[in-house]
Amino acid sequence: MALCFELPTYLKQLEKLVNVDCGSYTPEGIAVIADVLTPMFEQIGFTVVRHQLDEKAGPCLEITNNPGAEHYDVMLSGHMDTVFPEGTVATRPMTYDEEKVYGPGATDMKSGILSAWYALQMLTTEERERLSIVIALNCDEEIGSVYSRHWLESIARKSRQVLVCEASRPTGNLIRSRKGNAKYEIEFHGVASHAGSALAEGVSAIYELSHWSLAIKDMVNLDTGTTMNVGIIEGGMAVNVVPDYAKATVDLRFWNTDEAQAIDERLREMSESPFEKGAKVTVNRLTFKPSMQPTADTQALIRLVSEEAEKLNIVHGWEDAGGGSDGNFTAAVGTPTLDGFGPMGAGFHSDKEYLLIDSIEPRIKLLANVLKRL
Ligand SMILES: [Zn+2]
C-alpha cells in the first residue's frame, strides 16, 4: 500500500483526536478516541480488539495483522489518554501555525498514534505478510498504567521488540533509556496535646516528618542518578496544638533498580524506629516503574534505527530521559525497547505543548523504514 501523506489531511485527522477531552480520568473521552481509531486501523487491514480492563478505566485497543498470534515481531506502543482535565479542549482546542501544532495531547501523544497508522501503510503487502505486528494503545499511561500494565507486559513478552511511539525531542533525539520512578506516601502519627499546658505529653508528627525529610535528602545520589524529592507535605491542625498527624509525598527516580530497592528497604527500616519517641510511621509505595535500560539486543536495534535515520538525512541522537513511559514496563520484561518514534515535540503536560510540523513526515518514514528492516 502506498502512502499518500498530505499535511492538511493529517492535521484534520489529528484535530479529531486532540479535540476530545480524554484525560486518564475521563474514560468516556478515551472511548471516543477508540471509536475514531478502530475503523482507521480496520480500513488498513488490521483487526482491533477492545479491552475493558477495569470499570473505572477507559478502553484499551489491541490491534494486529495477525490475530491470535503466539508471537509478534514488533509491538508498537501508544497511549490514548492525556493528563488534562475535562474542559481543557473548550478553553484551548487544537490550533496551528506554520511551524507548530498546539493543543492538549497533540504531541503526547495523539500525533505518535496517528503517525504509526501512516507508517503501517507504507509497508508493502509482502512486508505486512512477513511481519507479525501488534499495536497496543492503552488508556492510563499518564497515571502509571495502573490498569493496563499487566496487559502491556503480556503483549511485550510475546514480542521480539517494542517501539514506543511517544514524541521525539525537539533536538531530534529518540530515547534509549528512561529512569525508573516510584511515588511514596509517608504518614506520621503522633500524639496531640496542648502546646502551652501539656507540651511534654505530646508527640509531634511534624518533627518526625522533619527528620525524615532531611534523611531523605541525604539519600540522594546525584552521581548514580538516584534522586528523591519530598514534593508535598501536609500536617498540623492549629498553632497551639502539638500535631498528631503529618504526611509527605515523595518522588524517587533511578537508573539502577537495585538502588531503588535498597531505598525502599531503608524507608521501611526507618519506619520501625522513628526519630521521635512515641511516633508511628507508615510507608506506602503508591507506584513503581522499573528503569528502561538498553541490553545488547537493544544496542543492535539502536544501530539499525540510526542507519535508517542517516539514510533519510534525519538529524537525531539518543537520549537518556528522566521521565518514564510504558517503555519502562516493556523493557523490564526483557524485550528490547526503544522510544521516541513519534514526531518531534515538547512542552508535555502543559499549555505550552507543541508538535513540530516539519518533523511529521520524516518521522513517519523513519518508523516505516525501521519496520521494513525488522
Ligand atoms: Zn505520553
Structure characterization notes:
The protein folds into 2 domains: 7-179 and 291-373, Zn peptidases (Aminopeptidase, 3-Layer(aba) Sandwich), CATH 3.40.630; 180-289, 2-Layer Sandwich (Alpha-Beta Plaits), CATH 3.30.70.360. By secondary structure, it is of the alpha/beta class. The strands form 5 sheets. It has a 6-stranded mixed beta sheet, sandwiched between helices. The chain is elongated and about 80 Å long. The protein has 11 helices and 19 strands. Helix 1 crosses helix 4. Residues 79, 108-109, 141, 166 line the site of zinc ion.
Q: What characteristics describe this protein?
A:
alpha/beta, Aminopeptidase, Alpha-Beta Plaits, 2 domains, six-stranded mixed beta sheet, five-stranded mixed beta sheet, 11 helices, 35% helix, binds zinc ion
Write the layout of secondary structure elements.
Layout: H1 7-18, H2 27-43, E1 47-51, E2 60-64, E3 74-79, H3 88-91, E4 95-96, E5 100-102, H4 106-121, H5 125-130, E6 133-138, H6 149-157, E7 162-164, E8 167-168, E9 174-178, E10 180-189, E11 193-194, H7 205-219, E12 227-235, E13 241-242, E14 245-254, H8 257-272, E15 280-289, H9 296-311, E16 318-321, H10 327-332, E17 337-339, E18 342-346, E19 354-356, H11 360-373
Parallel strand pairs: 3-6, 3-7, 7-17, 8-18, 9-16
Antiparallel strand pairs: 1-2, 2-6, 4-5, 5-19, 10-14, 10-15, 11-13, 12-14, 18-19
Helix pairs in contact: 1-4, 4-11, 9-11
The protein binds zinc ion.
